[in-house]
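Sequence design from tokenized structure. All designs in this work follow the same two-part layout: the structure record, then the generated sequence. An example of the structure record is given first.
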């Protein structure tokens, strides 16, 4: 965490501030687009601080002062450790908030019509019954799906790409391996996956660590 936060802040203080309120049309040159992308990268790196709009303005002031060579408003040496402490505190607060919301989503899903909460902690909610034989863990399946966080924000979707995906059930996250085996071809279901059955403490790409995930799954085909 220390090297990550330090690298992020060093990167911020080494780059110029882009004008606020840029829209896509104002990004004319490749350099402008690259600098905008840099801003997006920095934003992701600083997401651990869970900044409010007011706090973001303070960060922008520090960024501007650093770039312009103005005298810092605080003694930087004195605040090195405090940067790390704040990052840890904010991360823990986000984790507690996420855990509370995740429990709420899992509990609500378990009360839905036909819902089954398995021994593993996953919640399976049938939406449309399929026909035929349910897949085994070693079978290959073709599915459409939509994945969202507990706040409803979508992070992935085969519907968006128009391309169903195929995989063997024993080669994906445990929640899918378990949940899709409860489906039949042509069926649709919602899978509510606690972190330990999804991407756990490591996360994956756009999925933060310890995320409870909700998948709307449509089982199209099963093959050996």
């Amino acid at each position: 965490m220390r090297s990550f936060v330090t690298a992020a802040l060093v990167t911020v203080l080494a780059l110029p501030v882009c004008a606020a309120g840029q829209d896509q049309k104002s990004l004319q040159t490749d350099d402008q687009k690259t600098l905008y992308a840099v801003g997006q990268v920095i934003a992701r790196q600083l997401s651990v601080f869970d900044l409010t709009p007011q706090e973001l303005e303070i960060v922008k002031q520090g960024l501007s002062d650093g770039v312009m060579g103005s005298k810092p408003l605080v003694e930087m040496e004195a605040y090195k450790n405090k940067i790390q402490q704040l990052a840890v505190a904010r991360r823990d607060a986000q984790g507690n908030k996420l855990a509370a919301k995740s429990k709420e989503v899992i509990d609500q899903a378990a009360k839905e019509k036909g819902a089954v909460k398995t021994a593993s902690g996953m919640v399976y909610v049938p939406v449309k019954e399929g026909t035929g034989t349910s897949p085994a863990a070693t079978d290959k399946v073709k599915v459409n799906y939509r994945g969202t966080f507990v706040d409803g924000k979508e992070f992935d979707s085969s519907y968006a790409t128009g391309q169903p995906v195929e995989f063997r059930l024993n080669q994906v996250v445990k929640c899918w391996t378990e949940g899709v085996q409860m489906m039949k071809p042509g069926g649709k279901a919602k899978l509510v996956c606690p972190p330990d059955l999804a991407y756990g403490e490591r996360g994956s790409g756009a999925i933060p660590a310890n995320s409870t995930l909700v998948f709307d799954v449509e089982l199209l085909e099963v093959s050996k």
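The radius of gyration is 22 Å. We note this feature because it recurs in several other targets discussed in the main text.
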